[in-house]
Design brief:
With 490 residues, the protein is an alpha/beta fold. The protein is built from 16 helices and 13 strands. Helix 10 (307-311) links the parallel strand 7 (288-292) and strand 8 (320-324).
Length: 490
């Protein structure tokens, strides 16, 4: 299946100088205010609350660099209302956002008591299972009486029930692997598995935009890590060839193993990895391959079985398939799927299984029921319809935004659709204007992205109707004109 990638870098033909100018003006204003505040403190002897908040607490070790405190106080807090908005219900198609307000940019927020109903374009509810009704929810409620809400123990110490076993068997069959193991937390699935798989003397070749959980796991592994340019298989081959030729740093000895780590869909870019080419390189250089399918499992492919299903790649060519149940399955936790030997090894060696509590049986039942619906094992075509609706919604929304002149990243068929904002003043303006129009969106800026690539990130769902999307597109189009965000036309 085709990709049609629209990626971006900091050199894209947009007014980069204006972005720098916006940040520079904000920094200058912050420095001037801070300087004047310090002068007033020296003259009057009275402490300034803003200055106090922009520095480490006396007697405590600093949590950030001095420049970080400045950024948080004078840049982030000015637009902090655009992030972390609390909601009062499940993250379904529509959500209720609690209205809040603050006296000034450094004050604590207070709630007005008002709830704002919004169309939700920011949650990973890809297949619409995050709802208060349906067979998956009913199965989970029944599981409470049978299992209670927690195992209160790791899997190796009695925290393993028949629902965990069923979930592992079902997910392994779903992704086409021999065996699987489930974890309590998606982040920990990566961060505790990678240190068990690769050790000192090994080499990991990682995509430059891999998720923080992968980075954490690689740092803890003790392996040598090299990075290749995002989604650039030419650079991947260059790194592999050079690493094999040079060997381990200092000794020149061959690496004990080489592991390539990529994601199925990159959550900030909406880019689908070039799996067929990566598999070809993996075989050519006799490496192992680890694919994080947190965002692609249940969202890509004609059967929803992830990036292998999407490209028609044999799952046997992937050594480790990782995924989470927090997106398409509306649950928690994650899984690792692979050969029986690898999974047996991980049960005894991963910190996530030996020391952490096992996944809640109720959440395991939710994931299992959603998985059975997606696979059609419930005897209905509900799963197939949801998958088709998600693809239709994603492509319709992406194409319409591009036609309007917005600069959109990622691939066709990806439910993650980033819309580039660039300018720091537009992050909060876009978020506030959309909220006022009854649409909840996510904006992403530094340090989650580079200084020059701030964006809004839409996440589409099978739960969205065409009327929902048309409503959102009309409002986005108007706000785009107001904020001069249609860069492809301008």
């Amino acid at each position: 299946m085709g990709q049609g990638t629209n990626t971006i870098n900091e050199g894209h033909p947009v007014h980069v100088g204006c972005v720098y100018l916006g940040y520079m003006m904000m920094y200058i204003c912050g420095w001037m205010y801070e300087l004047m505040a310090k002068i007033v403190v020296l003259i009057t002897g009275r402490p300034n609350r803003t200055i106090a908040q922009s520095a480490p607490r006396q007697g405590y070790a600093p949590l950030y660099l001095k420049s970080d405190y400045f950024y948080i106080s004078w840049l982030y807090k000015r637009i902090s209302d655009a992030w972390d908005r609390p909601i009062t219900n499940v993250p379904g198609t529509y959500i209720e956002v609690l209205e809040r307000q603050g006296k000034d940019m450094n004050s604590s927020y207070t709630f007005t008591g008002k709830k704002v109903k919004c169309l939700n374009l920011g949650s990973y509810n890809y297949l619409g299972f995050a709802q208060n009704s349906g067979p998956a929810l009913e199965d989970s409620i029944k599981a409470i009486d049978k299992f209670s809400t927690s195992t209160c123990a790791p899997a190796v110490e009695g925290g393993y029930t028949d629902v965990h076993q069923q979930l592992e068997t079902t997910i392994a069959e779903f992704v086409g692997k021999e065996s699987a193991i489930v974890f309590e937390m998606g982040y920990a699935t990566n961060s505790t598995t990678l240190p068990a798989l690769v050790k000192k003397g090994g080499l990991v070749v990682s995509d430059s935009l891999n998720h923080a959980s992968l980075v954490m796991g690689l740092r803890a592994s003790g392996a040598h890590v090299k990075v290749f340019k995002h989604s650039d298989t030419t650079d991947l081959e260059r790194v592999l060839r050079r690493s094999i030729a040079e060997g381990q740093p200092g000794s020149g000895k061959p690496y004990t193993m080489i592991l390539i780590v990529v994601e199925g869909i990159y959550s900030m870019e909406g880019v689908i990895c070039k799996l067929p080419e990566i598999v070809r390189l993996k075989k050519k250089y006799k490496a192992f391959l680890y694919v994080d399918e947190a965002h692609s499992i249940g969202a890509l492919g004609p059967r929803g079985r992830g990036v292998c299903d999407y490209f028609g790649v044999n799952p046997a060519d992937i050594d480790i398939l990782m995924g989470t149940f927090t997106k398409s399955f509306a649950s928690v936790g994650g899984y690792i799927a692979g050969s029986k030997e690898v999974i047996t090894f991980l049960r005894a060696s991963s910190f996530g299984t030996v020391y952490a509590n096992s996944m809640s049986p109720i959440c395991a039942q939710q994931a299992l029921s959603a998985l059975r619906i997606i696979a059609g094992k419930d005897g209905t075509d509900t799963g197939a319809k949801k998958l088709q609706q998600l693809r239709d919604n994603s492509n319709y929304f992406r194409n319409k935004l591009q036609e309007m002149g917005f600069l959109i990243l990622g691939n066709s068929d990806s439910p993650i659709i980033p819309l580039m904002l660039y300018h720091p003043g537009k992050f909060s303006a876009f978020s506030r204007k959309m909220l006022a129009r009854g649409i909840a969106v996510v904006v992403v800026a530094f340090p989650a992205t580079t200084m020059l690539t701030g964006r809004a990130r839409f996440c589409l769902s099978a739960g969205h109707t065409k009327e929902d999307l048309d409503f959102a597109l009309r409002e986005i189009c108007e706000v785009g004109d107001e904020c001069h965000m249609k860069y492809l036309k301008e």
